[in-house]
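User: I'm preparing a small set of examples for a lab meeting where we compare how different chains pack in three dimensions. I only have the primary sequence for this one, and I'd like the structure in token form so I can line it up with the others. Please keep the answer compact; I'll paste it straight into my notes.
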Amino acid sequence: MKPDIQIRVKALASYPKQAAATRFRVEQFVGPLRERGIELELSPFLSAEQFAEMYKPGGSLKKAARIARSFLRRIAEATRVGKYDLLFVQREAMFFGPEIFEWLFQIAGRVPMVLDLDDATYVPYASPTYGKLGSALKFFGKTDRLIRRSAAVTCGNRFIAEYVSKLGTRAEVVPTVVDTGVFRPVEKDNKIPVVGWVGTHSTFPSLESLLPVLEKLAAKHEFVLRVVGSGRDAIEIPGVRAEVLKWSLEREVADFCTLDVGLYPIVVSSSANEEWLKGKSGFKAIQYLAAGVPFVMSPVGVCAEIGRPGETHFNAESAEDWYNSLDKLLGDAGLRQKMGESGRAHSLENYTVEKQADRLAEVFRAARNS
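Assistant: Understood. Below is the structure token output for the 370-residue chain.
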């Protein structure tokens, strides 16, 4: 029997489902929300093809022409927003410029807005790809204005929620989670333990900080280092066999679930100061937990509050901490299995799609009636 649709929500995002924030904070809730009487229609500003070309050099005129078409499509969408009961914006409706579309959609449809923040987008930073020009085009002050215009804000962690609450808007913590039926423990046939990291070119400097530790570990343990999404073609570490792979949506689950040990270093950089890092949602830790993969991470921001240190994972602040934690895990397959099982149980207890869908549905109903 089809569910009785009570609320229709127009969801706007800058990026398509190939971007983790769109995929895990919007798209994966379409089905669960429908079961709860809420129809969620997702509209990204960039297409999958545009997103893939975004950080590639060259083709500026072609990119600009396609962005112009996306801009015009957004305007056309605004004329049809009246058929929805609510506007849901994942960070921003367009990845650059002021909040013109959020304003236009609200005025045209006279609908309340719920904003979703999984990062501290209110904290200015230097764009690692486009430098000062990229930073200027972000219009960092718009996040504060969007917060004030919103009926509610769904926040990736309590630090973001505290910031939102200070601006006088209702904040609801909705952590970024994965489908635990998809991200789940698998039988591994790794003859040599695989230590892995999955990230992006912008977060790779955090992994680079660990390279001396990994080199030192290689003198005692045999392991494979698997690096996914770094933007590098190769990584040279004396004594370490490194597999460098491009990120792939089709391979995403396997890249996590087939690891024996996960890495989650977080360090301050030119594009990520301490305030920005406090806003991170600890998503990589939640992926490791769901996959039953023991891991070592920097206890920065909300990461200090995820899981149970010493039981589901190890926290590490110094190079010595990193070495000792990885040394224990690489030297004890039984410990890896025990930690992985504890992590999986913790994930099922705290970080499921169903639990977060209930929270989202509650926020949407309250916002619609505000």
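A couple of notes for your slides: Residues 60-78 form the longest helix (19 residues). The chain has two domains: 7-177+352-368, 194-350.

User: Perfect, thanks.
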